[in-house]
Amino acid sequence: MPDFDLATLLVLVPALPLAGAILTVLLGRVLGSRAHWPAVLSIAAGAVAAVTLLVGLGRETGIGTGHADGHAKPVEMVTTLWQWANIPDAYVPAAGSSLDVGDDLAARSAGFPQALPFSIGIDLRLDPLTAVMLAVITCVGLLVAIYSIGYMHDDPGYPRFFALVAAFVFSMSMLVAASNFLLVYVFWEAVGACSYLLIGFWFHKPSAAAAAKKAFLVNRVGDFGLAVAVFLLWMTYGTLNFHDTLLADGSPLPGILGQARLGDAAGYVGGAVGTAICLLLLLAACGKSAQLPLHVWLPDAMEGPTPASALIHAATMVTAGVYLIARCAPLYMACPTALTIVSIVGATTALVAALIGTVQNDLKRVLAYSTISQLGFMFASLGTGTLLGFTAAIFHLVTHAFFKALLFLGAGSVMHAMGGVIDMRRFGGLRRVMPITAATFLVGSLALAGVAPFAGFFSKDEVLAALHGRGWPDAHAEHQDAAPHETHAHRPLPREAAGSPAFRPVSFREPVAGAEADAIAAPTFRVLYWMSLVTAALTAFYTFRAVFMTFTGPTRVPDEAGHHAHESPPVMTWPLVILAVPAAVSGWWLFSTHALADFLAATPSLAAPAVAATAVPHVFHWDLALQGTLAAAIGIVVAAIGYLGRRSDGPQLERFLGPIRPILANRFFCDEIYTALVVRPLEFVAMLAALFDRHVIDGLVGFVAGVPLAAGAVIRRLQSGLLQRYAVASAIGTLVVVLALAWRLRP
Amino acid sequence: MTPSALVLNGLVVGGMLFAIGLVGILARRNLIVMFLSAELMLQGVSVSLVSWSRHHGDWGGHVLVIFVLTVAACEAAVALVFVLQAFARTGRLDAAAWQSLRESNLPRSIDRELPASDAEALTFPHLTPAGIEPEADEDALLEREHV
């Protein structure tokens, strides 16, 4: 397939939703209740383009053609739309600068003896990771947009909603397709802005406005980390591009994630600088993906319309952090400490969020904590620093996008029928009222809980396998012995195609995650593994608690629903049904064919020697699957004992929690702690500043204004309104002039 | 009469006219009287101009005076319109009636000592008062009407 086609499609994926957003903005008032058409059609076209890209790239990498060894050759394609900035000689090598950065950094960046240009283009890249993300974003986006036609009808902000959704799909597509860190930063902010606008969609509701503000401010902390990380990357690598570029004199400049550097054993800076970059990127990811300690915004973000929650705060935007870390995998591989921290943050977040989720009574908040928890799973998986870990994280990202979007849309359907009530204690037994919603919600819940044939089971199993592999490296070594032909650590990257962009022949350095490092990190990962297993049980518990409270027991409907509590219209149930299909089977399909993992392994970042060397054979871990299933079963059984068939407003299992309950119910007091530690001191400083402004600054301004006033007050007294006084003044003035003249002209 | 004596006489007359006009303007508050005084000052200047012109045998001064007279006629018409309008506004010819145009926070100028009036010396026919005596405007009483 010629590159031109793929390049055009790649541009179309973000461009079409952008056009849809602009059209909706321009024609929104004219279209009125038909304002969804531009957004839905453009996102649909974008989805077609993205799926075509996925298929085309799959064919390119040989996944679809039954490529036997399962190791696709790394592919990337970069399209530069136009040059954004080009400042010659912007990067001065550290050795020549007077900055005392330390010889360490200077030596590492001394690969460039000459000054480098700051050259940033609107670069879109296509590689397996991007293609997968694009397909997920546009497909889920399309279903959510269709669903919103029903959910948002009669809302006064109807056109605004669709414009924002289309703008979000555009921003998110650009974020995952961008091929330099500056563009990533730009669209990182853009998705944040869309998120802010959608959370605060009903801005006259004070809680929604406050939630939007909170999400924006908490995200700023993470964005700050990303900004500093980008600065550091520039200082360290002399470029911000992912791909290799050519300098003005034609010599190559290795990009940060370019093929030249990926193949270079010493291509990535470790030590303090590298760890700092990785931790700052992690901070950014924590902000966007709602990980501890920046997770507080996501539960509040449920104030937004439910379709927006499904699209942005469950399926796509919050996974941007996972994408970023997966994309920067080679950077992390040089810093094992940072990787371990990623895992620790992820597993801790997963556990904490799952604990909080068990006592929430708001259906959407249960799902929000579940999202945080599942994202924690992905981070834990990323932090293992193995190829399995990275692909498992993306695998879980994909399945999670489907089943969590399904669950959110189901919750929205419930909320729609219940007249806006989302407190699970106020309704129950809804399976008789809305059978389609109940059935699809059950499918999503089974997937989330990780019950055997459903999607979540397989992706969670992969995650657990990745953690297990780091916790018990010996056990996995046995697995590897079983398939020795695939596991030698120095497997060279396939370079079979002559014309393909091949890696430089290099001598790989020892992978960081070697046996020695594993021995040190193993106890940590064992703890993380057990934490994840507990989390899996808790996940199953709170998911089915929600299912049982909402859909079983005596049928009760709140007063707000009126007498017409009914199943949602087809335009809302069809997306549910469609989403239920991948939520049910995508895990089994992607796992059994191993298509996704092989495909992702062809991403340049994940095909880097350091990552690729950690590849393990693709096996189904019966022991881990058993443990995971057992955990899920325990959770479901406990939930069934406590909630199945009971009135949801009756006494709950929480009464057995004793002193832990207030801690969980208050979400570990995170908001209170932040209020005391951050908000109050800031308000105090703000108060001081306000006082200073009001009295000192305003006082100075007032003084300056007072001087002419006071001077004027003196002269103003002369305007008496008495004609005779003016005449006297005039006469005296004339006299003075005459006398002065006479004096001058005296003989 | 020597030519210098002639010019001197003219200047004296002109100076007197000017001085009388100046005093009139400064001392009187009746708008028409003030206007007349201003005209007097103008004519004083004109007289001195004519004197100098004659002294130097230069017709320029004469021409200028004719010109001044013309302009003064027009100016008189305009000024009288102003005076009339001022009268229509306040009902009085007193220049002090316009002192409300002063700066807002300044005190009002008040004639505290009225000059002795010889009104009682005049004899007016006694008429039987009829109706209710209208309420007197304090401000208006303080500003003399017949200045």
Characterise the protein shown here.
The complex is a heterodimer of chains A (747) and B (147). Chain A has helices at 3-31, 36-61, 103-109, 128-151, 158-177, 181-199, 206-237, 259-262, 271-289, 297-300, 306-315, 320-327, 329-333, 336-357, 363-382, 387-417, 435-449, 455-471, 473-482, 515-551, 570-593, 595-601, 604-607, 609-612, 622-643, 660-665, 670-716, 723-744; strands at residues 77-91, 116-126, 245-246, 252-253. Chain A is mainly alpha-helical and 747 residues long. In chain A, the strands form two sheets. Chain A has a two-stranded antiparallel sheet. In chain A, strand 3 and strand 4 (252-253) form a beta hairpin. Chain A is globular and about 125 Å long. Chain B has a domain at 3-91: Helix Hairpins, CATH 1.10.287. With 147 residues, chain B is mainly α. Chain A binds chain B through residues 716-717, 719-724, 727-728, 731, and chain B through 22, 25-27, 29, 34, 95-96, 98-103, 105-106, 109.
